[in-house]
C-alpha cells in the first residue's frame, strides 16, 4: 500500500472513521506542518512521540508506541540520586567478580575438570548487586520478601556473594559441581551447578537453567501471589517477583508465551530483567538485527511497561549535544553483530567503525583519546542507570515491567573474554588473564602466588570487619535477610476425615461412572471439609466440561482478579460460567505449559509463602508429560507437591480423537521423574485410598517432596463397592488380589494362571477370567495393578541393596511376595504400550507375558481398537492359553482354536468396552 493511501493503523482504529469536525482536523494538520517547517523533522518526530505517549496515558485507544530510539528510556535529567556508597559497592562488585570467576576456574583443576560458566555473571554483576543492595527484600522483611528467579548460568555470582556473607566457605566453593565426590573431613561439601532447590534446598528457591521455564514460572508465581491475596489466604501486596533472564533465552516460546497473561492481570508485582549481552551460547542473538529493539516492541505490544538501559553515563554529554540526531541515528542503525565486534577490539576500532560512519559523530569525539572512547560503557554496567530503572519499575502500577539492559558478555574478565563468541564455553583463565584480572579488581595477590599454582588462585575475603563486608551485611539486614534462601514447612493443614472417602468406597450402584468422574466426585466430597477446602487449588485448562468439573463453576468460581464484568451467555443455567476476584479455580485456557507453571507456584507455596496449598491439575493425559515434561521436571526440582490427574487416559479409551490425543505411554514418561508417584487405578475406591495416602505423604506430619500422578479414564462403567477386607496396603504399594479364581464347576486339578491388569484393563482381565473358566476350565486369579511404576521402584531399590550386600538377608519385593506360590503363567495387560507392564518383569517369578497398545492410536470404537491391539478380554484369554500350551499344560490346539473361536483377526468382532465417550 502506498504511503499516500489511507490504510489501517496497526492494532488501532481504521482511518476511514467519519470526520465530525473537518475544520478542527485541518488546524491540527496545519500545526504539524508548522512544526516540521519551523523545527525540522526531528522536532516534529519528538512532538509526535510525546503525543503518542500522552495518548496512551489517557487511554485514547490509538496504538501504543512499540519502538523507541536505541537510547535509555529514562533520560539523565530524570534519574534519581543514587543512595548508596558508590566506592564501597564498587569494591564489593570486584570481590564478587573475582570469587565467582575463580570458583569456576578452580573447578577446572587437574583431576576435577567439571566446567562451569564464567561470562554470564560477569555481564550481569551490576544488575544483581544494585538489586541486592537496594531492592531485593528477604524473607524477614515485614512485607514478606521478594521472590527472585536468578539466571541459571549466573549461579557462581550468588555463591560468591554467600561466601562474602559467611553463608558458604572456601570448602563449599571448591565443591562446585562435585555433588557426590567432594568431601572435607568426612563431610560432603558441594554446590550444584545451577539453581537447583532439589539439590540445595536451604538456598535455591526456583530452578531456572532449563531456559524458558524461568520466565514462564515467574509470571505464574506473580499471578499466584495475587491469587493468595485476593482469596484472603495471605497478604502479598508488598511482595515482588523478579526474573533475571538472558536475551538469547527470550527465543524460547515459553519465555514469551504468557506475556499477555501478566498484562491482562496487571501484574505490577512482576519485573523481568533481561540481560541483553547480545550473545547466546554460540554467537550473536541477532547479528543482523537488534534484540533490544525487538524485545521492546514485543513487550510493549503485549502491554508491558518497558525500560531500556542502553548506555552508561559517559554517553550522556554526547547525547545531550546531539542536536541533529546523528548519534541517535547511528545507534539505531548499528547492528548487534557490530556492537559485539566493537567490544572485542579497542577504542581506535570503535572510533573508525562507529563514530566515523558520520562526520557529525566523528566531530563529537575528535578531541577524545582512544582510551576515553573505549571507556564508554553500556547501560547494564552503570549502577546509577540500573538503580534508576529498578526504582521506576517498583513504582510503576497497572502493568508488569521489563528492563532491557545492554551489557557485554565476559565484561571485566579481559580481552580474551569480553564479547567473544566462545565466551560461554570458556571455563578457565590463562596465567596472563589471571594477572590482568587481578589488576582490574585490585586484588592483594602477588605474581608468585598465581604462578605457584595457576589452577588454584586464592579466593578473596577481607574479613567481616572490612567496611565493604560491613556495608553488604547492613544492606541485607535492612532489606530483610539473605537471598537466595528457601525455607521449608512452617505450617501444616488439617486433612479431610475418613468419612470424606466413604462415598467413593461405596461405588456407584447401578450407575455407570468413569474414573474421571469418580475422582471429581471424590474431590467434591473432600472439599466439604471447611478447613481443608480453602487449601485446594483446582487447575484446569480449557476442558472443564470434558472432565465433568463445570459443576465447580458456580460454587467455588473461577479466579479472575478483575471479577466478572459481563453477563455470561449461560447465566440462567444452574452450572453457569462464573468468574470472581476471590475465585478458587485457576482456569488457564488452552495452555498446558501455563497450567504446569501455575501448579508449580501453588505446589511450592508451603516454602515460598509458608502457606501449604494443594494444587490439583486435571488435564488430557496425552498433553501432560509428553507436552510439558520439562515443566514437570522443574516442578520436581522446586520440590512441588500436589496431584496431577491425567484424564481421558489410555490409548483405546478416548474414542474418535485420533493420534495426538491417544495416550499409550504417559506412565512410562512419568516413571522417569523421580519425584512423581504414578498410579493407574481401575475403580473409585482405589482412587480414594490413593488420594488419602497421597495427602498424608505430601501434607501430613512428615511431608515428602513428591507429586502424585493419577491416570483416569472417560469410559463409563459401574463402579463397584470396595470389596470387604480389601488389601489397602496392596492398593497403595501397587498391586493387590482383586478376584481370586473360583473352582466351582471345575476340578481342584484345574490349570491355573495369573492375570495382572491396570486401569481400564481390569474389566478385560475379569472378562478373560470368565472366558477361561467357562470355555476351558482354567482358573485364573485377577490382580489389580494400581502402579507398575511404584512396583518397579521398590524392585530397583531392593536390587541396589542386594548389589551392596549380595549375600545378606533381604526382604522380597511386593511382586515376589504376592506371586510366589501362585501357580500358572503370568499375563499382564493395560491400555498402554507393553513397556508399561514390562517394568516389573525381572521380579515376576515364572513365565511372564505382556500385552499392550504399541504404536500410534487412531479413531475408532473402543471395542475395535482393543481387538486391533489384541488387548481385549478374548485376547488376554488366548495369551493365557498360549503360555499354558508352551509349558505343556494344555494341548496347543486349544490356543489355536481359541484364536479362531474368538475371531481375534476381525476387529469388528471385538466387544470389550462400552460405547460413548462421556466422562
Automatic annotation (TrEMBL):
The keyword Oxidoreductase applies. Residues 498-717 form the Pyruvate dehydrogenase E1 component middle domain. Keywords: Oxidoreductase, Pyruvate, Thiamine pyrophosphate. SUPFAM superfamilies: Thiamin diphosphate-binding fold (THDP-binding), TK C-terminal domain-like. Its cofactor is thiamine diphosphate. Residues 734-872 form the Transketolase-like C-terminal domain. It holds the Pfam family PDH_E1_M. The gene is aceE. The keyword GTP-binding does not apply. This is Pyruvate dehydrogenase E1 component. Component of the pyruvate dehydrogenase (PDH) complex, that catalyzes the overall conversion of pyruvate to acetyl-CoA and CO(2). PANTHER family: PYRUVATE DEHYDROGENASE E1 COMPONENT. InterPro entries: PDC_E1_N, PDH/Transketolase, PDH_E1, PDH_E1_M, THDP-binding, Transketo_C/PFOR_II, Transketolase-like_C_2, Transketolase_N. It catalyses: N(6)-[(R)-lipoyl]-L-lysyl-[protein] + pyruvate + H(+) = N(6)-[(R)-S(8)-acetyldihydrolipoyl]-L-lysyl-[protein] + CO2. Its EC number is 1.2.4.1. It is an enzyme of class 1 (oxidoreductase). Residues 446-467, 488-508 are annotated as: Disordered. Residues 149-309 form the Transketolase N-terminal domain.
Amino acid at each position: 500500500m502506498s504511503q499516500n493511501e489511507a490504510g489501517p493503523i496497526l492494532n488501532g482504529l481504521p482511518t476511514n472513521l467519519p470526520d465530525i469536525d473537518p475544520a478542527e482536523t485541518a488546524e491540527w494538520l496545519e500545526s504539524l506542518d508548522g512544526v516540521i517547517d519551523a523545527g525540522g523533522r526531528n522536532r516534529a518526530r519528538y512532538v509526535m512521540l510525546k503525543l503518542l505517549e500522552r495518548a496512551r496515558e489517557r487511554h485514547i485507544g490509538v496504538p501504543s508506541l512499540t519502538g523507541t530510539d536505541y537510547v535509555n528510556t529514562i533520560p539523565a535529567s530524570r534519574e534519581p540520586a543514587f543512595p548508596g556508597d558508590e566506592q564501597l559497592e564498587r569494591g564489593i562488585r570486584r570481590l564478587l567478580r573475582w570469587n565467582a570467576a575463580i570458583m569456576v576456574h578452580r573447578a577446572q583443576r587437574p583431576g576435577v575438570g567439571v566446567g562451569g560458566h564464567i561470562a554470564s555473571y560477569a555481564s550481569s554483576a551490576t544488575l544483581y548487586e544494585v538489586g541486592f543492595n537496594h531492592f531485593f527484600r528477604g524473607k524477614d522483611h515485614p512485607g514478606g520478601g521478594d521472590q527472585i528467579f536468578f539466571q541459571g548460568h549466573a549461579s557462581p555470582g550468588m555463591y560468591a556473594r554467600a561466601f562474602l556473607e559467611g553463608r558458604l566457605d572456601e570448602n563449599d566453593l571448591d565443591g562446585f559441581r562435585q555433588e557426590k565426590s567432594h568431601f572435607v573431613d568426612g563431610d560432603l561439601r558441594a554446590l550444584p551447578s545451577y539453581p537447583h532447590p532439589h539439590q540445595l534446598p536451604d538456598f535455591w528457591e526456583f530452578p531456572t537453567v532449563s531456559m524458558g521455564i524461568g520466565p514462564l514460572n515467574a509470571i505464574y508465581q506473580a499471578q499466584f501471589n495475587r491469587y493468595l491475596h485476593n482469596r484472603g489466604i495471605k497478604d502479598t501486596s508488598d511482595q515482588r517477583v523478579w526474573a533475571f533472564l538472558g536475551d538469547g533465552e527470550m527465543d524460547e516460546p515459553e519465555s514469551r508465551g504468557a506475556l499477555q497473561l501478566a498484562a491482562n492481570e496487571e501484574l505490577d508485582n512482576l519485573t523481568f530483567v533481561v540481560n541483553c549481552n547480545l550473545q547466546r551460547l554460540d554467537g550473536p542473538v541477532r547479528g543482523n538485527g537488534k534484540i533490544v529493539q525487538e524485545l521492546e516492541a514485543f513487550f510493549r505490544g503485549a502491554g508491558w511497561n518497558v525500560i531500556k538501559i542502553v548506555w552508561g553515563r559517559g554517553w550522556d554529554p554526547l547525547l545531550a549535544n546531539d542536536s541533529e540526531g546523528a548519534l541517535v541515528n547511528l545507534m539505531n542503525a548499528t547492528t548487534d553483530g557490530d556492537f559485539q565486534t566493537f567490544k572485542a577490539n579497542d577504542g581506535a576500532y570503535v572510533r573508525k567503525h562507529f563514530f566515523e560512519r558520520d562526520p557529525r559523530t566523528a566531530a563529537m569525539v575528535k578531541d577524545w583519546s582512544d582510551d576515553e572512547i573505549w571507556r564508554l560503557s553500556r547501560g547494564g554496567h552503570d549502577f546509577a542507570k540500573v538503580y534508576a530503572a529498578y526504582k521506576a519499575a517498583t513504582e510503576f502500577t497497572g502493568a508488569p515491567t521489563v528492563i532491557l539492559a545492554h551489557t557485554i558478555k565476559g565484561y571485566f574478565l579481559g580481552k580474551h573474554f569480553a564479547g567473544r563468541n566462545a565466551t560461554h564455553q570458556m571455563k578457565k583463565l590463562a596465567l596472563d588473564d589471571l594477572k590482568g584480572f587481578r589488576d582490574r579488581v585490585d586484588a592483594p595477590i602477588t605474581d608468585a602466588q598465581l604462578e605457584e599454582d595457576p589452577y588454584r588462585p586464592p579466593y578473596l575475603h577481607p574479613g567481616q570487619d572490612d567496611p565493604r563486608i560491613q556495608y553488604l551485611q547492613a544492606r541485607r539486614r535492612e532489606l530483610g535477610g539473605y537471598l537466595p534462601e528457601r525455607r521449608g514447612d512452617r505450617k501444616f493443614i488439617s486433612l479431610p476425615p475418613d468419612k470424606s472417602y466413604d462415598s467413593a468406597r461405596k461405588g456407584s450402584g447401578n450407575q455407570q461412572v468413569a474414573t474421571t468422574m469418580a475422582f471429581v466426585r471424590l474431590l467434591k466430597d473432600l472439599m466439604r471439609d471447611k478447613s481443608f477446602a480453602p487449601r485446594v487449588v483446582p487447575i484446569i485448562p480449557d476442558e472443564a466440561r470434558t472432565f465433568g468439573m463445570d459443576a465447580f463453576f458456580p460454587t467455588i468460581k473461577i479466579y479472575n482478579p478483575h471479577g466478572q464484568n459481563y453477563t455470561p451467555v449461560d447465566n440462567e443455567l444452574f452450572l453457569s460460567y462464573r468468574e470472581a476476584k476471590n475465585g478458587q479455580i485457576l482456569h488457564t485456557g488452552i495452555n498446558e505449559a501455563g497450567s504446569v507453571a501455575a501448579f508449580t507456584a501453588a505446589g511450592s507455596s508451603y516454602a515460598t509463602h509458608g502457606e501449604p496449598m494443594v494444587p490439583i491439575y486435571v488435564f488430557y493425559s496425552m498433553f501432560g508429560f509428553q507436552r510439558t515434561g520439562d515443566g514437570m521436571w522443574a516442578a520436581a526440582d522446586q520440590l512441588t507437591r500436589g496431584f496431577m490427574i491425567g484424564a481421558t487416559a489410555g490409548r483405546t479409551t478416548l474414542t474418535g480423537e485420533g493420534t495426538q490425543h491417544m495416550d499409550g505411554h504417559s506412565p512410562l514418561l512419568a516413571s522417569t521423574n523421580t519425584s512423581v508417584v504414578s498410579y493407574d487405578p481401575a475403580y473409585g475406591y482405589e482412587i480414594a485410598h490413593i488420594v488419602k495416602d497421597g495427602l498424608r505423604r505430601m501434607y501430613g506430619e512428615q511431608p515428602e517432596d513428591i507429586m502424585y500422578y493419577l491416570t483416569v479414564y472417560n469410559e463409563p462403567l459401574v463402579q463397584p463397592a470396595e470389596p470387604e477386607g480389601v488389601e489397602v496396603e496392596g492398593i497403595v504399594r501397587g498391586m493387590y488380589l482383586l478376584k481370586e479364581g473360583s473352582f466351582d464347576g471345575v476340578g481342584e486339578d484345574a490349570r491355573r494362571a495369573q492375570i495382572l491388569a491396570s486401569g481400564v484393563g481390569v474389566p478385560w482381565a475379569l472378562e478373560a477370567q470368565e472366558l477361561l473358566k467357562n470355555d476351558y476350565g482354567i482358573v485364573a486369579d485377577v490382580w489389580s495393578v494400581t502402579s507398575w511404576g511404584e512396583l518397579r521402584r521398590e524392585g530397583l531399590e531392593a536390587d541396589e541393596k542386594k548389589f551392596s550386600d549380595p549375600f545378606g538377608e533381604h526382604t522380597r519385593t511386593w511382586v515376589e511376595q504376592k506371586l510366589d506360590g501362585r501357580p500358572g503363567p503370568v499375563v499382564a495387560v493395560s491400555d498402554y504400550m507393553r513397556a508399561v507392564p514390562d517394568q516389573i518383569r525381572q521380579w515376576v517369578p515364572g513365565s511372564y507375558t505382556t500385552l499392550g497398545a504399541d504404536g500410534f492410536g487412531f479413531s475408532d470404537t473402543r471395542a475395535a481398537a482393543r481387538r486391533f491391539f489384541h488387548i481385549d478380554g478374548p485376547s488376554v484369554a488366548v495369551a493365557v492359553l498360549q503360555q499354558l500350551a508352551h509349558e505343556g499344560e494344555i494341548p496347543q490346539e486349544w490356543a489355536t482354536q481359541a484364536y479362531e473361536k474368538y475371531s481375534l483377526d476381525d476387529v469388528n468382532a471385538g466387544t470389550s468396552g462400552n460405547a460413548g465417550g462421556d466422562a
